[in-house]
Amino acid sequence: MSRRLTKVLLPVGVLLVAAAVTLAVLQPWSSVAETPDDGEKPVTVKAELTTLTSDLRLNGNLSYGASIALPGRGGTITRLPTAGDVIGVGQALYEVDGKSVIAMRGDRPFWRDLGIGVENGPDVRQLEQALADLGFGKNMTVDDEFTAVTETNVKAWQKSLGVTKDGVVKLGDVVAITAASVRVESVKAQLGDPAGASPLTYTSTTLRVVAKLTDAQAREILPGTRVTVILPDGTETPATVTAVDPGGQPTDKEGETTPATANVEFDDPAVAEGIGLRAVKVVFATSEVKDALVVPVTALVATTDGGYAVDVVRKGGEIERVSVEVGLIADTKVQVVGGDLAAGDEVVVAQ
Fold first, then answer.
1. Residues 219-240: b if buried by 16+ CB within 10 A, e if exposed
2. What's the distance, Cα to Cα, between the start and end of the chain in Å?
3. Which value, to the nearest 10 degrees, does the dihedral of the CA atoms of residues 227, 232, 235, 241 take?
4. Residue 265 pLDDT > 60, yes or no?
5. Per-residue b/e over 131-145, b at no fewer than 16 CB within 10 Å?
6. Residues 310/347, Cβ–Cβ less than 8 Å
7. Average pLDDT over residues 179-185
8. Alpha-carbon distances of 113 from 93, 116, 307, rounded to whole Å
């Protein structure tokens, strides 16, 4: 984890310490006035040496990522996919006037007809690369120029689709998508509708986690940070923060803006398949102490001088109160420092 991230997240461990110490002060079981009753056998737990880790846990939700609206075009819609369908490059997204609208890999929308005589441009390069990726790049140099070789390859591609082989890719015949395949999120049109409006929305096909952040966390959490995701059934799986969105963009509701979020991708996306778009936890390891001498928080006793102690059961059952200092606290365990206490010693815990 980066030093920068540690700076902002370490206070979480400090807060845990403060909270737990406050609990120790306020709980009746930790009062200095109380000692185990001689007539009752105290409940004890062994002090242990272990690695103690304090975590930052964020709420997240499984998601397929941002929803993208497919652009419309002229004509009448004659076929539509179903929500949940996965469509790859080279395949039909939907149909207009009986003609398929084909998905092609690309980062920018197509904005004009492409054929012999068209001015050089990046859309030509994108088309040529997409054709080559689909296996129609024979003798073709991928560049900004639409040549006779490009036309030949377009005709070969058109032949494979069973459409007119005119060597021209007309505006609306293809739609650029930014991945090898997309998942249809929702279908907004009906058969027979004009195709001018967006007919559907799509997302990535890969499940990831979107976790909400505070503004401070959005400034400090960096892409590349390793995390653990806890799935609804308790399974823990490794993942990585791939992007952080600072939010602040206007929403449809007046006066509201989008929250800061982190995109988290699984090392193995298959672990989340079949779960549905459910809530999960994202765990950031924020502070760690190796070989820490640890006891339960409920073993702490507040002393009159403002410090802390633990009651240790010695040989013969005698109970000795040992002063200690409090270190890192994580969950229900606390690191204790100093005092006549060692791993394996039995400490009294509150009942």
1. ebbeeebebbbebeeeeebebe
2. 38
3. -20
4. yes
5. beebebbeebebeee
6. yes
7. 95
8. 19, 10, 79
CA distances from 234 to 5, 153, 172 (A): 26, 52, 47
Question: What pLDDT does 249 receive?
Answer: 87
Question: What helix, strand, coil percent values describe the chain, rounded to 5?
Answer: 20, 40, 40
Tell me the β-bridge partners of 114.
169
Provide the CB-side half-sphere exposure for 231 (13 A, CA): 19
- Residue with the bigger pLDDT between 322 and 13: it is 322
Separation of CA 33 from chain center? 49
- Given a cut of 90, whether residue 38 has pLDDT beyond it is no
Give the DSSP H or E segment for 285: strand 279-296
pLDDT at 276 > cutoff 70: yes
Q: Nearest-CA neighbor of 73 among 34, 112, 126, 104? A: 112
Strands (E), 3-139: 44-46, 48-63, 68-69, 77-79, 86-88, 92-96, 99-105
Average pLDDT over residues 59-65: 94
Give the pLDDT of residue 331: 76
H helix runs in 179-271, sequence order: 215-220
Tell me the mean pLDDT in the region 305-332.
Answer: 91
